Write the structure tokens for this entry.
Amino acid sequence: MTTSAQSESTEAKAATTVVLTDVAAQKVKALIEQEGRDDLRLRVAVQPGGCSGLRYQLFFDERSLDGDVVTDFDGVGVVVDRMSAPYLSGATIDFADRIDAQGFTIDNPNAQGSCACGDSFH
């Protein structure tokens, strides 16, 4: 039985972390299995760089850093460091495998704009 306090805290947690779609979670899980390790998680970070000032980094990491926000999506751990968390709050990570788009995509409500090449945001 879910109480309203529990659902409110779940909604608040979702709003303060990234969201990994089911398709993206399956792809991450498959890539981790290819690595042959069970200690890896997907780390999502925002770093300075690119035409617009900030760029995303997605990579596998076994480390746990002070202040990391860890969220589980169908057995896939997603880690966001405390400096990147405000930039990624409410962002959705998906995976596309179509003729017009391939790879991981990030829909970020915090991004005010991006460069023409789509490699960075501000």
